[in-house]
Specification:
membrane; Iron ABC transporter; ABC transporter involved in vitamin B12 uptake, BtuC; mainly alpha; ABC_TroCD; about 290 residues; ABC_BtuC-like; 2 strands; 12 helices
């Protein structure tokens, strides 16, 4: 596999996994939670590094998941005390992210862990850190981790598809049917945290937020069926990753930033041209009604 091939595969895995998880974020009206967790996982990563003094390993994933769950619990606690949802998200994620930044500046020292790396990622370095697998050979470590995360995401989504559908659209009905809504919520927060941190080192916080929200928002404009929305969102994530890479090569700029920009272009195309909820179709329908 060529250097470009590994970068595209890794970015495509990020787009696919984040796109699938992002559907549930959009339907649950928790889009800003993606922004919160994608930033607060930095604190978990930094704390894991301070405890182990190692920049790689599953302890990073554990630390990030704990930070993600802590973010969700703190936001839920503030909301239960009467703080507005948007305000509680803003307070928690900015505070925990700031603590992570302060720890990097004061405790990490010369380790390759900095704020720029956290925001933009280092996708260009992915092909150089490899692991050896039987019958497969050398593959990038980030690609392996993202493949495992994608498998976990698909398994959890498919295994509990009906539960996700009911709890996303009508939590009260789900509770009346005996579905553990609270457990499903924190299971989803764990899934979101795992997906976020798996992509965090490769592409940074900016692209993680873009891939979690924008492909799903674009898919929402094209269909009202949940299964189709999952497929479209994952596909849009892959298309954004591939097109963003070639935009970056053309402009000689940040790969992760260009991929995030590509998600915005795709959303604008969906917003304008979607035959179901697009701006053009709504204007045509309004004109038809006026003419009648």
């Amino acid at each position: 596999m060529s250097y470009t091939g590994w970068v595209l595969i890794t970015a495509g895995l990020v787009g696919l996994s984040c796109g699938i998880v992002g559907v549930l974020l959009i339907l649950r009206r928790m889009a800003m939670m993606a922004d919160a967790i994608s930033h607060t996982v930095l604190l978990g990563i930094v704390v894991a590094f301070l405890l182990t003094r190692q920049l790689s390993g599953y302890h990073m994933l554990v630390g990030a998941v704990i930070a993600g769950l802590l973010t969700s619990i703190m936001i839920q606690w503030l909301q239960s005390r009467g703080v507005q949802g948007e305000a509680s998200i803003g307070v928690v994620f900015t505070t925990l992210f700031a603590v992570g930044v302060i720890l990097i500046a004061t405790k990490v020292g010369n380790a390759h862990l900095d704020v720029k790396h956290a925001l933009m990622g280092e996708i260009t370095f992915i092909p150089w850190t490899t692991v050896s697998l039987p019958w497969i050979g050398e593959i990038p470590e980030a690609t392996l981790i993202l493949s495992i995360v994608l498998l976990v995401v698909l398994t959890v989504i498919i295994a509990f598809y009906k539960e996700w559908k009911i709890t996303s659209f009508d939590p009260a009905l789900a509770a009346s049917l005996g579905i553990p809504v609270i457990i499903m919520h924190y299971a989803f927060m764990s899934l979101l945290s795992v997906t976020t941190v798996a992509a965090f080192d490769a592409v940074g916080a900016i692209m993680v937020v873009a891939m979690l929200i924008t492909p799903a928002a674009s898919a929402y404009l094209w269909t009202d069926r949940l299964s189709v929305m999952f497929v479209l969102s994952g596909l849009f994530g892959i298309v954004s990753a591939v097109s963003g890479y070639y935009i970056a090569a053309w402009l000689d700029t940040s790969i992760s930033g260009s991929m995030a920009f590509a998600t915005g272009l795709l959303f604008m195309a969906s917003f304008l041209g979607s035959p179901k909820h697009g701006l053009a179709s709504r204007l045509m329908s309004r004109r038809t009604v006026q003419e009648q």
